[in-house]
UniProtKB/TrEMBL annotation:
Modified residues (4-aspartylphosphate): 53
Protein name as it appears in the record: diguanylate cyclase
EC numbers: 2.7.7.65
Species, as recorded: Gemmobacter megaterium
Alphabetized PANTHER family for the sequence: DIGUANYLATE CYCLASE DGCM-RELATED, REGULATORY COMPONENTS OF SENSORY TRANSDUCTION SYSTEM
Domain GGDEF, first and last residues per copy: 318-452
């Protein structure tokens, strides 16, 4: 699908030239001649990126950018602002208003296209955000904290005095921690890793900042950190390459501390938002596979895992034992003592069952008072003895209730072993469930396997 870029400029010639360049790069370009027109177009059909002129007579670029950021429908659209003058105050104002970059005309075509590609990749997190928002809307995820402390910025240069100069320039404008570190220290890893690395064009002899960036991106501790490369002012080709290879930003080697502080804050905020969403997504996935009451896996998780266990048993020419366990007369607990007591019983039974399993065994709550246990690589005799141990563990001690008092609980267990050939999880569970029904019919509090019982 072709990405759409909105060009906002009050000069027709400028709009046409940009459209020709974007069309040649296989982008779909639309145009607006004023700020109000741009806002209307962006709200009606949000583009993938906006190229915005700073100096427009009716509504300047800063006002347009601020309006875009204030509207939930347009707040995540990347914005590149451009101008004819190298006004440092204007650049800082634009970045503070929410512009992702501020370029001075004439703009190097390679740098512009690389920056567009760079922001398009960053924009992919919008789709990721929509996915996590949808998952959170289902109630799976809970708020994940711990991302609001001051940031940590690591400075790496070929000469320590260069990095110290960067720190001196940045320190008055930032509350974040600024650390001068070596390449070796960065690659050894830190916990937690810095939020942002600022790298010189050259580091150790024969090692460039771009190589260092690749090293950092390849390591789990630093792969999600923001990275800026400091390049010579005229290194347009290197800047374009750096952006294409994964740099989040490129800085001039005579950078202004106030401007870079604003850029750094935006990069740290974006990185932490991505961290937050990854944590939420991981928690959502965990909750989707976990029973919220007992903390055991649920049926959705258990069936595929059991399928892999059964396939492995066929390959290894061993058996896999499956138990379906049901608490005896559990309904009476809820009816006589309340659902809080029932929840307490389920949690404690889950704990006792889990304590009696081997590493690699599977336990899940199928629903209600029913549990599933799978034990790979086990004989029928060993499986029967294991089921008996679990049955006795449940009934061995009374369970204390939250309102006072205690209950004795028992469990009935249906046991089935996998056949010589592959057997589906559903069929094996059905056989174990049939054995469970036999255990219930024959008096409860017992293990049944293929018609054999023990009490």
């Amino acid at each position: 699908m072709t990405s759409r870029i909105l060009i906002v400029d009050d000069v027709p010639t400028n709009r046409i030239i940009l459209k020709v360049k974007l069309t040649a790069a296989c982008y779909e370009a639309t145009m607006a001649a004023s700020g109000p027109e741009a806002l209307a177009l962006a709200r009606r059909s949000p583009p993938d990126l906006i190229l915005l002129d700073y100096a427009m007579p009716d509504m300047d670029g800063i006002a347009v950018c601020a309006a875009l950021r204030a509207d939930p429908a347009t707040c995540r659209i990347p914005v590149i602002m451009f101008t004819n003058t190298a006004d440092e105050a204007a650049r800082i104002s634009a970045l503070r208003a929410g512009a992702d970059d501020f370029l001075i005309k004439p703009i190097d075509d390679k740098v512009l296209m690389a920056r567009i590609r760079n922001l398009m990749r960053a924009r992919d997190t919008t789709g990721f955000s929509a996915t996590t928002d949808a998952i959170e809307g289902l109630g799976f995820a809970e708020p994940v904290g711990g991302f609001d402390e001051p940031g940590h910025i690591a400075l790496l240069a070929a000469r320590p005095e260069t990095a110290l100069r960067w720190r001196k320039v940045l320190a008055p404008h930032l509350n974040d921690r600024l650390s001068v570190i070596t390449r070796a220290a960065a690659l050894e890893g830190a916990v937690p890793a810095p939020d942002l690395y600022i790298l010189g064009a050259e580091l150790d002899p024969g090692i460039s900042g771009m190589q260092m960036m690749s090293d950092l991106r390849s390591r789990p501790d630093s792969c999600h950190a923001a990275i800026c490369l400091v390049l010579p002012n005229d290194a347009h080709a290197e800047a374009a390459t750096a952006l294409d290879l994964g740099a989040d930003d490129v800085l001039r080697d005579d950078f202004d501390g106030a401007e870079v502080a604003v850029r750094a804050q935006a990069l740290i905020a974006r990185k932490r938002e991505a961290d937050r969403r990854r944590a939420r997504l991981a928690e959502s996935l965990r909750l989707s596979m976990t029973d919220p009451l007992t903390g055991l896996h649920n049926r959705r998780y258990a069936l595929p895992v059991l399928g892999r266990m059964l396939a492995g048993a066929v390959q290894a020419r061993t058996s896999c034992a499956v138990m379906v366990l049901d608490l005896d007369r559990f309904k009476l607990v809820n009816d006589r003592h309340g659902h809080a007591a029932g929840d307490t019983v389920l949690v404690e039974v889950a704990r006792r069952l889990s304590a009696g399993l081997r590493p690699g065994d599977l336990i899940a709550r199928l629903g209600g008072e029913e549990f599933l246990i799978a034990m790979p690589g086990i004989s029928d005799h060993e499986a029967f003895e294991a089921a008996e141990r679990l049955r006795r563990a449940v009934s061995a001690r009374q369970i204390l209730l939250p309102s006072g008092g205690a209950l004795s609980m028992t469990v009935s267990i249906g046991l089935a072993l996998s056949a010589t050939g592959y057997e589906t999880p559903d069929r094996l569970i059905a056989r174990a469930d049939g054995a469970l029904l036999a255990a219930k019919a024959e008096g409860r509090n017992q293990v049944t396997m293929g018609g054999r019982t023990a009490a």
